[in-house]
């Protein structure tokens, strides 16, 4: 069973927080702490998080074998598509080709609503 909860950035699982902070450093995004609008953490087969700022989304994942995934993109260029398993986030990820990533969010999720709102705002600034 997959469970997604809204969580304070400071309360993220330490493995996820290290991945987000390292990703921000690698891509010269600066310290995200004061810019985080909302954060969600998902526990299921994998442990993952979505971190939302006014202009960016950062997604990190840790698999049971210790392998990890780190993605980040500007919200202005992101598109969303709902599916049975959640929402596909399609973006030009920093340092990677454009692709889609499945966030396990249900319609009506607070994080999904915030993500939609921030994408629209980012496109109009």
UniProtKB/TrEMBL annotation:
It comes from the Bacteria. This is Uncharacterized protein. It comes from Herbidospora solisilvae.
């Amino acid at each position: 069973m997959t469970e997604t909860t809204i969580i304070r950035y400071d309360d993220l699982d330490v493995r996820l927080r290290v991945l987000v902070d390292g990703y921000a450093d690698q891509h010269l995004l600066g310290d995200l702490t004061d810019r985080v609008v909302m954060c969600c953490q998902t526990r299921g087969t994998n442990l993952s998080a979505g971190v939302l700022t006014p202009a960016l989304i950062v997604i990190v994942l840790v698999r049971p074998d210790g392998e990890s995934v780190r993605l980040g993109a500007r919200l202005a260029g992101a598109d969303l598509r709902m599916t049975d398993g959640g929402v596909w986030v399609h973006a030009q990820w920093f340092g990677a080709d454009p692709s889609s990533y499945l966030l396990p969010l249900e319609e009506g999720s607070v994080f999904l609503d915030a993500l939609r709102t921030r994408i629209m705002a980012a496109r109009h600034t």
